[in-house]
Specification:
Layout: H1 13-28, H2 54-63, E1 68-77, H3 107-110, E2 117-126, E3 130-136, E4 141-147, E5 150-155, E6 160-165, H4 185-192, E7 200-210, E8 213-222, E9 229-237, E10 243-250, E11 258-266, E12 284-287, H5 288-304, H6 313-317, E13 325-327, E14 334-338, H7 357-366, E15 367-372, E16 375-381, E17 386-390, E18 394-398, H8 402-411
Length: 412
């Protein structure tokens, strides 16, 4: 449902892309998981629905073309990360003061907050040109509204707004909606059903009711050993084929790592006024084009302060997607990339001089020293994703066990 915004300035973009790459790996690390269709009849349950095979249910999802809906989504993400004090209430995802060249209403960074904690969202859609997503807090609300050529984002806490506009007739869809953490059950499901192959088993695990709607439960499990993913369960609306609930449980057991589902849903056409937005008098408005110019200027200023001998080619490329290498396939695929120079201290389980003490404690609490043919490094663990940082400045990340990471590093 969320709209997609274009990438910001070229300066610094490649490094941010590498960081954002880790988000889908961290949250659904199984985007590369492939599909093996295992027919299974739906077991009896409540509600009583006609039998359906896993293949038929997946085809039902693929054929689903829900253009209009509105509702409330509850999304919870629990990677088992300790909270970092002094983060301005934003936990690990930060918050607080914005640096130069940034806006607190910018969807590109704001929506990454959905990658941790529990959030209540209001969503609405009316075809490809009108969507709205609102993140509700106790005393504030953050909304992203896409209406035709305009994309607005508004943060009531800071009273700041962000505005992007696509050029008419340009066919530029990049500014239409914020590309960030998947925010609805369908977006999460689409991440899993992108590719095909033989590393995944599918079955129909009975029926259920979600937001008052009859639904089939599609269960997705990895066939490969070494994955930290236990199972993914998608509740699919029996009438429309729209995913209504998505739950990812870890192989180690316990509560779901990601759980997102509608608590209310209506497939009627939303009122046109739902997608109207006009900033109030006094609201600080940041234009996307102005923001990009400020970020370019900021990046140029930083480079002006560097000596020529400091600008090594490897440092300029570090963290870019050109350095990305994927080892393995399916659920046990591991991303290998070269870290930026300033991240070298992670390999020793330490932060940098600029890192707050609480953040250094956080790294220390997760770190586990390991050795192998690759040399030595530190593994940082969550309930789903493990990351190995080696002393030679490389990182290996995936929804795999520590042993699988070490094996991948040895192979890499």
């Amino acid at each position: 449902m969320a709209p997609y915004a274009s990438e910001d300035s070229e300066s610094g973009t490649r490094r941010r892309k590498a960081v954002r790459y880790a988000v889908p790996v961290a949250v659904v690390g199984v985007a590369a998981a492939t599909i093996g269709l295992v027919p299974a009849l739906a077991s009896s349950g409540d509600p009583d629905l006609p039998d359906i095979t896993a293949r038929q249910l997946i085809e039902k999802i693929a054929k689903s073309d829900t253009q209009q809906l509105s509702g409330t989504v509850k999304i919870s993400t629990d990677l088992g990360l300790p909270s970092v004090g002094g983060a301005g209430g934003g936990g690990l995802m930060g918050g607080g003061e914005q640096e130069g060249g940034k806006s607190s209403a910018d969807p590109q960074s704001k929506l990454t907050e959905l990658a941790t904690g529990s959030h209540t969202l209001r969503v609405a859609a009316d075809g490809p040109d009108r969507q709205k997503l609102s993140v509700l807090d106790d005393a504030s609300e953050y909304s992203v509204i896409h209406n035709g050529d305009d994309l607005w984002a508004y943060d009531s806490k800071s009273d700041e707004a962000y505005h992007a506009q696509s050029e008419k007739g340009s066919g530029d869809d990049a500014k239409k909606a914020p590309k960030g953490v998947p925010a609805t059950p369908k977006e999460l499901t689409d991440e899993i059903l992108k590719a095909g192959g033989d590393t995944t088993s599918f079955s129909v695990d009975g029926t259920s009711q979600v937001a008052g709607r009859d639904a089939y439960r599609l269960q997705i499990k990895p066939k490969q050993a070494g994955s930290t993913v236990g199972a993914i369960t998608v509740s699919v609306d029996a009438k429309t084929g729209t995913p209504l609930k998505f739950s990812l449980t870890p192989a180690g057991g316990g509560a779901a790592v990601v759980d997102a589902g509608f608590t209310k849903v209506d497939f009627a056409k939303p009122a046109a006024s739902t997608f109207d937005f006009k900033p109030s008098k006094g609201t600080k408005v940041t234009e996307a084009d102005d923001l990009k110019k400020a970020q370019r200027h900021e990046g140029a200023a930083k480079h002006e302060n560097l000596k020529p001998e400091d600008l090594k080619a490897d440092d300029l490329k570090a963290g870019g997607l050109d350095d990305l290498n994927v080892i393995g396939k399916g659920w046990t695929s591991v991303a290998e990339l070269k870290l930026p120079k300033e991240a070298a201290g992670l390999a020793a389980g330490k932060g940098s001089a600029e890192m707050p003490p609480d953040a250094q404690k956080f790294l220390s609490s997760l770190g586990d020293r390991v050795k192998g043919e690759f040399g030595s490094g530190t593994v940082y663990s969550t309930r789903l994703v493990n990351v190995l940082v080696t002393e030679d400045g490389k990182a290996y990340a995936g929804a795999v066990t520590k042993d699988a990471l070490v094996k991948a590093a040895n192979a890499g």
